[in-house]
Amino acid sequence: MLQIQTFDARAGGNVIYKALAHPLAAEAIDRLYGKLAGPVGVYDPDGIAEALFALYPTRIDALFTHESEAIGTIRAGLPSRPLTELADSGVRTLLVAAFDTAKIVARIAHLLPADTVVLTLDETKLPDSHLSNPGRYLDKLNFATNFAFFRDADGLSTRLVSANYWAAHGAGAVRLWLRLFDSDGHVLATWQQRLPEGPGGFAIDSREVRQRFGLGAFTGQLFIHAIGAAGHDVVKYALDTYAWGDGPSLSCTHDANAWPSDRFAGLPAPAPGETVVLWLQNSHAAPIPAGAVALDRMGRETPVTLDRPVGPFATVALNVADMLPDVHWPAQIEVRAGRHVVRPRYEIAHGPRTRIAHVNVERDNLRPDPAIATLPPQMGRGYLLPFPILPRGRFRSIVQPTPMATTQQTLPLRVDVFDREGRQVAERFLGCLNRDHDVALDFDAIGLEEGHAELVYDFREGGEADGWPHALFRYEDRQSGHAAESSFGGHIFNTAMTWKDEPQSYSGPPPGLSTRLFLRLGDAKRRSFTVLIYPASGPWRPRSATMLQLHDGAGKMIAEAPLSIACSGSAMVWPHLAFPADRIAAAGPLGYVLVRDTTCRLFGYAGLMDDAGGFSLDHMFGF
């Protein structure tokens, strides 16, 4: 596993990791290494060295620290030596593993051996033109970055859609710095794209990119860096995969979650007639060594390793059946990625149709919390994981709980089922499931025509909980055979009382719950829709006061439509039905709907649907 610190739930991420892993920083570090002449010493004042040499291995001969309590501890494979030994160390080059080092270098100048050359990570900084805050290099807004799976090959294209939500937080001119890598990790194109001055929509379409740069077919990844960001340091988007011409495939996924993880979960094993491919995309400029990535039947602890390396920024298609031939749906697969990749995508082919979805970060920093089983009664049902039950006449809806933390050995769960008006119509105890369970509940057995369900903790047979319940939701079109799937985790929703950091989505101090969800518009062939759910852990307002706000491509709101959803109810919303046709036309291809509510927190799933039986669905994002 790479010895790097990436995401910290308390701090919101590690900006040093992003500063080191940026593709432009990788090129600069390669140039910096070319100047190293041995013996090489490293002074590590900020604890960066271990991450630096994990991402960019090179030979070093000595490592120095000013922390007396750290003397002798191992960093980057070397014992830490006291800084006072630098003068007699004989190092020819000293690399100061820090940024903004002018004062640091001046303070240790008297300790340097004669003729020692001093190099620093300042040589690897991005240009000021690429920084949102040039005055403070390690400001997290300087590294508002992400990756996207990006393809234009085999009859399929991809389209990334989002909005300039940074403008709503006071950003001035915002632009994207973009770099496209092919499957071998080679750079196909680098360009910049200016975003609308206001909170307007934008799109990056693989067909247009291919035509613009005269590219052949490609499957790889797109690196995205938002320059001029304010408020948010994460690049959020929806990614549609669509077929050329009248092809039958259609799918969408949420953004990639910019932080590499050791493990990911929520990868389904293939069902009969299906081929499941995991798209493994190296997020770094260093190769992934052979044996560093593995797949395992969830809960079995018998991982099968990938026996070949993966090049820098390269993309590899792993057929799950080649590595785990005896594992079948409804079994689940754990991806052991060793912090080499951000959230991977997987693709399922069944006949002429394919669908693509994402796995989720499996957390290694959680422990079971006995207090969850005895939450105060004011917290109601506590943690909920809401998800749609699509109209049963056309769709089959299936839920499968997924372990999403390395310490989860039991999952004590039930499903509460609600119709659209918030009336509970059924309850199904799933049991105290083991980590390696293969339970998948088909809602045909419940009989509800349309509505939603909520996965909740239920300790009637014991078990443990950590506040991180997750599940995979699968939807199948009975007529066309097309399918879509999504996955997400639970929260405490819509209560006046709080427990730790729940409920989330506050606007100001508790209980200021609110909703701000992005819904892209479709086109003449593929119409967008959303299923909005009003989950409530305890009693809250009887109905929502939701407003659908239609924006044009420049971000101007051009129409509003009210919507009232019953507490514990849901609604399926189609923009082309909610707004007049002339307003939809005025919004244009980059227009969008903002789902806004200042009275409650809604949860949403969105996608596209065509007339040939293709549809997509994944959870929505907000800003």
Major sheet size, sense and barrel closure: 8 strands, antiparallel
Our count of domains comes out at 3
Helix content: under 10%
The average pLDDT score comes to 95
Shape: globular
Termini, distance in Å?
33 Å
Uncertain regions: pLDDT < 50 for 5+ in a row?
none
Mind telling me the C-alpha Rg?
25 Å
- Can you count the beta strands? 40
Based on secondary structure, the structural category is: mainly beta
**Helix count?**
8
Which band does the percent of strand residues land in?
A: 35-45%
Structure description:
It is a single chain. Helix content is 9%, strand content 37%. It is mostly beta strands. It has three domains: 110 residues, Rossmann fold (3-Layer(aba) Sandwich); 218 residues; 250 residues, no CATH class. The strands form eight sheets. Strands 7, 8, 9, 10, 11, 12, 13 and 14 form an eight-stranded antiparallel sheet that branches. β5, α4 and β6 form a beta-alpha-beta unit. The longest helix has 11 residues. The mean pLDDT is 95.
List the keywords.
single chain; 623 residues; Rossmann fold; 3 domains; 6-stranded mixed β-sheet; 40 strands; globular
Please sum up the structure shown.
The chain is mainly beta. The protein has three domains: 15-124, Rossmann fold, CATH 3.40.50; 140-357; 370-619, no CATH class. It contains eight helices and 40 strands.
